[in-house]
Amino acid sequence: MFVALSENKINKETTAVPSGNTILRYLEANSWELRLGDINIAIDPVFDQLDFGVPALYRGNRKYLDSAAELKSLAARTDFVFISQGFDDHAHKPTLKKLVVLNSSLRYLCPPSAKRTLVDSGIDEAMITTILPGQNFVFSKDDTEIEVLATTGALLGPPWQQKENGYIMRPTERSSKPFRSVYYEPHCMFEEAELSNYTADVIITPVVSVRIPNYTILGGGPKALQLAEVLKASYIVPMSNWDLEERGLLKRIVQLVGSEDSFKNLVKSKYFLKPKIQVVSATPGQYLSLQ
Description:
- By secondary structure, this protein is α/β, with parallel strands linked by helices.
- It has helices spanning 67-77, 93-102, 112-120, 192-195, 222-230, 260-271; strands spanning 2-5, 22-26, 32-36, 39-43, 59-61, 80-82, 107-110, 128-130, 136-141, 144-152, 165-171, 182-184, 202-205, 209-212, 215-218, 235-238, 245-247, 255-257, 278-279, 287-290.
- It has a single domain (2-290), classed as Metallo-beta-lactamase, Chain A, CATH 3.60.15.
- The strands form four sheets. An eight-stranded mixed beta sheet has the order 1-20-2-3-4-6-7-8, with helices on one face.
- Helix 1 packs across helix 2.
């Protein structure tokens, strides 16, 4: 079951993380806060205008949360920062520069494509661990030990370029505080043969497809359901990483296919006799406790 903890109001600084071993909080764009056991993780933090260096073509800002207040409180309670891709909407230099000032003791896990951005943001190389699909990393705090498996994610360049990362986060056998295993990949792009070797209780993924002419930016729809089935998940937590206050020429050619409601109906239609996958909506700023 899941419990939505709604006492934390949108646009208010949040300083206390609720009790529970598997806590998720959506922070808009690609950004998430996870508490797994005793460990607090920030994923793909973007807390400033997103414009990829070409604001005339595209610029996006949050709709719901106060970026400055959220970043300040997040930095104070985070142990690790995970970056999934080297692009600005994941490895966001303006945000990373602020993070290193707010908390210089943070550790970072990222693909090689993101390392230069982190270093250029003022983060000490000793605080950065790079990881490729197929590799793992283990870290601990108090009664929790987590294994992070890097999986194959999106291809954001020519076919010969290294694909970006997805992550499976799961407790090790030595962890005395159990939590649900979580899979995160922000484009709903994966390799089925690879993921069939793993399981994850919770899937964080887009369920709405985003396309521009001749190119799919985000998967979603039936592909998100396929992802959950491959990993034998109990929960799908949709991310609305397309839902920003957007300006610029690029916005005119972006096409959204589907909706969260249509995805929920897709899941219900397939499992109406024996529900086994639950779609749990993530409201920005609100904690979800997965039990």
